[in-house]
Every structure is written in structure tokens, then in C-alpha cells.
Amino acid sequence: MIERPIIALDFATKSEIQTFLNKFPTDESLFVKVGMEIFYQEGPAIVRWLKEKGHDIFLDLKLHDIPNTVQRSMKGLAKMGVSITTVQAAGGFEMMQQAKEGLKEGTMETKNVPQVIAVTQLTSTSQEQMQKEQLVQATLEESVLHYAKSAQKAGLDGVVCSAWEAQKIHEITTKEFMCLSPGIRPQGSTTDDQKRVVTPYKARELGANAIVVGRPITLADDPYEVYQMIKTDWRNKNK
Ligand SMILES: O=c1ccn([C@@H]2O[C@H](COP(=O)(O)O)[C@@H](O)[C@H]2O)c(=O)[nH]1
Fold first, then answer.
1. Ranges for the Orotidine 5'-phosphate decarboxylase domain (predicted)?
2. Which of 32, 36, 82, 134 could form a disulfide with 59 if both were Cys (CB 3.0 to 4.6 A apart)?
3. What's the pTM value of the predicted model, to 2 decimals?
């Protein structure tokens, strides 16, 4: 269980992140998500900088390519010392296996292998969209469960899914298999482009092992206050 909500640092520049982090106490160790937006601007240096500040890193680059390319990319990525990283489950079973292999090879000396989890169906996808646009005949839940089972068989540590799917995923995998859930919105917040949204409190009840929260915190007038409120709700201590 990851007790701290993971904050999605969806910013375009390091200086924007610095301004944002200045609103938190300097000794507060955060779990942050580095995604494509900032990584494509700043590269691995942003990961090093955040780590030096004492934060844990979820590097969410959602790798999706042929197995050999993903294996070699993961080998390099492993050296960055991140805690969790991602691939797209749609890349296939062999690709997922090779992602894990690459991470193991890249950390041969340190033995500090990052966890790798597979994105199932994005939380911005509805069942209707999935069936129409991906020509998938199954229900959204069936698709997510299928990817979760495949990710587990491939040796991955978990999946990215909506908290709505977490309980069933645990039933077909294990309680420890990580269900990391974005699409988190406090009661009454706007949903933005997210389709499968859950409150922090409900996400915990439904069996999520970790939550990722971006805009409700990053766009707040007082991000630290909202972060604390979400953390309390997530830990189910306010009811
Ligand atoms: O299915 C997915 C996979 C990843 N994400 C990422 O999580 C955050 C959510 O940000 P919000 O502002 O809280 O909506 C964002 O970085 C996405 O890239 C996701 O939302 N859904």
C-alpha cells in the first residue's frame, strides 16, 4: 500500500515544478509522478533533481513498442533509480516480459529493481469509446481484467486501472498485485477528461493500492491543503 497520494507533476518546465513544490513544507517527502510532458522537456535530469530533493518517483512513460526495443529502453531507464514505471498492456505479453527483463538487467549491480506496472484501459476511456474506437467486443471490465491477468503472468508488479476495477483484479491475481489508480477526484470536483472517476476514500474501499492525483492538487489555490485533505480521505481517517 502506498499511503501517500502520488502527485502527477504535469507541468511543462522545471521552474513551474519548483514554484509548485515551494508551496509544500521543505521537509515533506512526496511521491511524485513524472510523466511524458515534463520528461520530454527536461529528460532524466528532472528525475535526478526530484530524487535529490528527497522525493520518490513514479516514472510514467507508458512504453509501447516491440519487445526488443522495450527491453533495451527499460535497461537504461532502470539506472535512474525510480520506484515504479509503466508499459502499455496492449503492447503484448512478450513485451511486458521483456520490460521486466530489461529492468532486472539494468539493475544487476544494485538489485534495486523498479516495479513495473501495465496500463490497462486509460481512465479517460469509457466502455462506449473502447468498443467503438478499439473495436473491442468485450466489456471494459473484461478488457481490464484480461490485461491484468496477462500482466501478472508476464511477471509484472501490477496495473494502472480505475479503482472501480481493483477489487475484481485482486480476486483474479493476488491482494499484493498493485492496482494503481488515477482518475481520482474529491467529492464535487470537475472530472476534466477523466471518465472513470472515484473519490480518494472510495478508491481505498474498492481496493486500490495507490492513487495518482494531478489537477485537483496542481491547479488548487492551496495545493498543500488539498494534498493533506486528499491524503486524509485516502487513508480513510475522516469518516
Ligand atoms: O489510465 C491512466 C493512466 C495514467 N493517468 C495519468 O494520471 C494523471 C492523472 O491526472 P489528473 O489531473 O488527476 O486527471 C495524469 O498524469 C495522467 O497521465 C491517467 O489519468 N489515467
1. 4-230
2. 82
3. 0.97
